[in-house]
Amino acid sequence: MILYRYQYSDEPVLDAIKRQEYLQPPGDRVSYVLTCPNCGPREVTDFSFGGEVNPRPHETPSPRELGAYNYFRDNVAGVQREWWFHRSGCGEWFLAERDTRTNEVLLTELPS
After folding, report:
1. Which CATH code fits 31-54+63-109?
2. Are 79 and 97 in contact (CB under 8 A)?
């Protein structure tokens, strides 16, 4: 019986870190800070994204209008208004204006 030795190092955590560094060039940042209107600045991982703000359909929408409201988004490359939920803090929904190209948050406010 032949036993094969794995070609990986004895430290799999270091291998994983090396692979991640290879996949993500330095300087690329995905995370950013959102300011909760109640709790103040927090890491974006404390929040849940609720989608972009879009107007609700009228009182009795057709199936096509309801489908468009539920599933179609503009997904603009620029500033858009979005819903966010502070799941690891106060538990409030709020609105944010964010530039989707840079993740710069321009404004956060409670809905009126």
Report:
1. 3.30.2270.10
2. yes
